[in-house]
Structures are given as structure tokens and as C-alpha cells.
Write a structure and sequence with these properties.
mainly alpha; Amino acid/polyamine transporter I; globular; 386 residues
Length: 386
Amino acid sequence: MTGGTATATGAGPTWFQRFLLPGFAFKAVVIGGGYATGRELAEFFLPSGPWGGLAAMLLAMILWSIICAATFALARALGAFDYRSFFERLLGPGWVLFEVAYVLFVTLVLAVFGAAAGEIGAAIFGWPPLAGTALLAGSIALFVTFGNASVEGLFKYVSFLLYGVYALFMVLALGSFGDEIAARFAIPVPTDGWIVGGLTYTGYNVIGAVVILPVIRHLTSQRDAVVSGLIAGPLAMAPAILFFVAMIAFYPGIIDETLPSDFMLQQLKMPLFHLLFQFMIFAALLESGAGSVHAINERVDAARRARGRAPLGRRARGGIAGALLVGCMFLADRFGLVTLIASGYRTLSWVFLAVYVVPVLTIGMARLARATRGAKDATAIEGSAQ
């Protein structure tokens, strides 16, 4: 089945489900622990300076849009709405390479999310790091237990919270640090490395396009797939650009901050907004973690259905999530946030470029072009027969 699905009321997919939900879901996966706290922005973009960092972010945004559009269109043409089905049809036996890389990716990102939640709990409430990590793990497990509807609702409502808080943060930052931001953008700084930074950030984050394949079952046409994919890049990068511009007020020293967001919030001296922002970060960690774990549940569910077995129940979904999250909590407790991001993400970025991005943009697009030509030929033959 390659068409859209009906809603619970029997109506067709809504405009939101067709065009905005894929972008919100993609944003949910990529925002994660490092993006939401500003740690990834400091790691991959600030070393190229204010203007170089913005150039790298725009490069990543454009590449995200192109790859999301290609992935959504190909997945819809193949009728593949989970990552295993997608890569089985794209790579044949080579799908195992992606599976191994994805399991490593999920292990790493969940550990990063756990570490970030631990840091937030310690900074705000003075909790031991493991307490914040445990709270996040339990929340993720709760949402993924109830399947697609629960996870899609999380993507939707957390997105509204996130965009609103980032917009308010930008307004407050400009009011408090506007002169410092303008002064640092005016200072000539080498922009070396911005292309590598943009490509690296693209590589390990664009995996979100296949992680969120379950939500594209709402798409009704290839036009929907292309439009929603092109929108996904700006939806995912807009909050990061707002945050990055605000961070420039404290460039270059902020590069060394473990939690740039917490550092900046302390400079604002607005305790209530500080709490709101940290709550937003926790919500962002929750939706990112839920998206990654839900993708694994959907992959297992699709494999069970293909073998004629019953769909994955709530208890099984919760059990899979719990097993993944408990293992990753120990990683989060063992290593720090900066170490996890710096040492793990760069390697996985190039792996995903090799096993996902290149095949999709070569093999996948050639296959999609042949399918499109075949559909046009069939339509022409049918028309002439009439």
C-alpha cells in the first residue's frame, strides 16, 4: 500500500499530517540532546566563526530538505514505512549494514539524551545525574508503549512548545545581548571548515528521515512526499539558527561550555524563563528519544507481520523500550555529554553518508525515475486504448 491512510474518524489525512507532521517528526529526532542544549552547535558550527557557522547550518538545512524529499518519495513508491523494509528494498542483503549502524546510533543518542537529562536535573534541582536520566527513560517508555498515535501527538504538541520557547528566547537574547551579538558578527573571523562541519552534521542527523517513516503513511501522493520533505529541512533547522545567533554574544568562550543553554540562561537572570527553557529541553529529549525507540518498535512490528504473526502489543513495545533504555542509561552515567558527542557522532556521520545518503541519491533516485516513467507509460497506454 502506497497511499495515505484514513484517520480514526474515517476522513482522509489532514493537511497537517500530510505536510507538517513529517517535518515536525524529523525535527523531533534531530533536535536531541546536543542540539537542544546547544552542545552540538558549539561542537560543529562555532569553530567556523559566526558567519561560517551560519553557512554550515544553511548547507545542512538544504541537504536535509533534499534527502528528506528523496527518502519520502522513494519510501512511498516502495510502500516501505519502516527502516528495515526501506533498506531491504534499497540495498537488498546490504540492509544489514544499515541495521548495525542504526543500532549503534540509537545506543549513542539515547546515552546522549540520558546524559543531557542528568545534567539538567543536576543543574536545576541538584539531583544526582542518574535521577534525571531515569526520569527521561521512563517517560520515553511510556509514550512508545501506546504506538503511533501517542508518538505523533508528542511530535505535534512538543513542536508548538519548542518553537514558541525558542522564539521567545531569541527576543529576550536580542534585548539583553543584542549589541554583543552584532559586535561579534562584525569581527573578521576565519570560516575554515564550515563545509566539513555542515556535511558532518548532515550525515548523522539526516538519519531522522528514515527513523520517522511510520508518519509518512499519511501522504496521499508523490507531491506530498516532495513538499513535506522540502519543508522538513527549515522546520528542523529554524530553532537551531535562532539559538546559534543568540550564542554568538558569548563567542568564542561559549564553545567550551558543557551546557551552553544553561550558561546563557544564567546570563539572562530570568529564573522563570530558565525553568521553562529547561522544561522545553527535557520535552525535546523526550520526543527525540521516543522517535528513535518507536522506529525500532515499528521495525520489529513489520517483521512480525511479514511472518504472519500478531502485531506488536503494548506490553511488548514497552518491554523493548525498557531494555534499550536501561542499557543506554549506564552509558549515560559512565561518559559525559561532550565526550559522547565529540567521539561518537563524527564517525557515525560518515557511516550514514555511505550506507544511506549515497545509495538513496543514486540507486534510489534511479529506481524512482524508472517507476515514474513506467507509471506515465501505463497511463498513456490506458488513455490511447480508450
